[in-house]
C-alpha cells in the first residue's frame, strides 16, 4: 500500500484539517517554520493522532527551523503513530540549488 504524506506547506490549521477530513493524507507532515512554531506542530500532532494518522515534522531548512522540528520529533518518538525526522546534510541543499 502506498502511503501519502503532505501538509508541509500548509500555513493554517484549517488547511490540514481539510486534508485530513477528506482522507487525503496517511502521514501529516507540518513544518514548524510555516505552521506556527512548536505550538502549531503540537496542535496538529494531537489532531492527527485523534484521527489515527501518522504525524512527523517536515524539515527542509536548517538553523532554528531544524531545531524546532527536531524538538517536536523527539517528543513524537514515543507517541503511537509517530515517525522520524529526516535531516539533510547542509551541502545537499546548496548543491540542489546550484544545479
Oligomer: single chain
Kindly estimate the percentage of residues that lie in beta strands according to DSSP: 5-15%
> How large, in whole angstroms, is the Cα Rg?
13 Å
Query: Poorly predicted ranges (pLDDT <50, ≥5 residues)?
Result: 93-99
Total domain modules: 1
- Named CATH topology: TIM Barrel
CATH class category:
Alpha Beta
CATH architecture: Alpha-Beta Barrel
The strand order across the widest sheet is 1-2-3
What is the assigned CATH homologous superfamily?
Enolase-like C-terminal domain
Please outline the major beta sheet: 3 strands, parallel
How many helical stretches?
A: 5
The total strand number stands at: 3
Helix content: 40-55%
What spatial form do the alpha-carbon principal axes imply?
Answer: globular
The run of helices and strands is EHEHHEHH
Terminus-to-terminus distance: 34 Å
SS-based class: mainly alpha
Q: What's the pLDDT, averaged over the residues?
A: 75
Amino acid at each position: 500500500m502506498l502511503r501519502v504524506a503532505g501538509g508541509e506547506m500548509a500555513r493554517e490549521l484549517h488547511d490540514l484539517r481539510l486534508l485530513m477530513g477528506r482522507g487525503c493524507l496517511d502521514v501529516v507532515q507540518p513544518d514548524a517554520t510555516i505552521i506556527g512554531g512548536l505550538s502549531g506542530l503540537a496542535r496538529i500532532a494531537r489532531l492527527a493522532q485523534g484521527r489515527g494518522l501518522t504525524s512527523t515534522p517536515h524539515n527542509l531548512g536548517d538553523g532554528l527551523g531544524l531545531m524546532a522540528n527536531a524538538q517536536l520529533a523527539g517528543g513524537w518518538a514515543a507517541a503511537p503513530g509517530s515517525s522520524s525526522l529526516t535531516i539533510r546534510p547542509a551541502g545537499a541543499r546548496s548543491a540542489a540549488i546550484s544545479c
